[in-house]
Design a protein that fits this description.
about 325 residues; 12 helices; alpha+beta; 8-stranded mixed beta sheet; about 15% strand
Length: about 325
Amino acid sequence: MGLNNKRWAVLVLALMSIIAFAVVRHAGSGKNGTLVRNSLIAQPLPESAFSWKPGAEPADFKLETREPETWMQQRIAAIDYDSDGIGQVKAVISAMHAQPFVGHAIQKDLRSTWRLIAEHGLGYCADYSKLFTAQMLAAGIPVREWALGHKDFGSGHTFNEVYIDGQWIFVDSFNGMLIQDRETGAMLSVLQFRNRLAQKNIDSIEVIKLTDPRYFFQTREEALNYYARSSDFFYLMWGNNVFSYDSHPVIQRAADIGRPLERLVAILVNQYPQIRLLETETNSAAIAEMRNLRLVLYSSLIVELLLGLCLIRLCWKIWRDR
């Protein structure tokens, strides 16, 4: 009987290992890892759910209420700009692009991110959008962070939207660009920009380059096509609580160990914003894929827990029958 229990224990342990390996392998690459994470915290919403204004945020939006630290306030105060609003946005982005671009993801706290971007030219889009969010909040400008996936709701690109003069305005701080109506010169919001791309109304769009040395597209058409290819996979981070996240002691300790653990802990302590997928007429299959992936992940977790309980019971029997 003891031998049978040992065989069963080995079988259960093997099954647990196979399931764990399959999940980790699927989530191992950056692309799949982002898709896995997003599937656990995503909810699709119609376009109308994204039209709220500052002061009327949804109740579950993680709105930042914490004051920026002194060093951040000092950095913002030191940036020269000609006028409030768009002038300040342009000045902040120019300061972020002061050094030749080196690249390499930073994925650190705000202060380290500022130093590595401003002094060394490091960072990718997620680093820039997070730092830009923090700077806009410190400047008193409402801001939120968007992202898109290149082929699904997984990895892709992050950018921002600021609320100035009664409207949301698209800002890509990493690529140093704004978007405006080609005829009227009016700045466009993320949704206005996205809808024109989806409708192939590209001739009505003008790209405003803010930082020529760091502008990563060779032509206007290249920039617009980059976004147009992903027009079905836009999503909004449902919160801008970058200071609260950055200062949370448990998240800080987890960050010392590794980025995946940091994000997991942030989700568990309710500091990681959910994401809201922009529903369109043509992305229902991608949204269904997200739901199916979430079902697979939760099912795998339940199976692992049940197998774990079986393994504990078998180990107890083996110990008892010694």
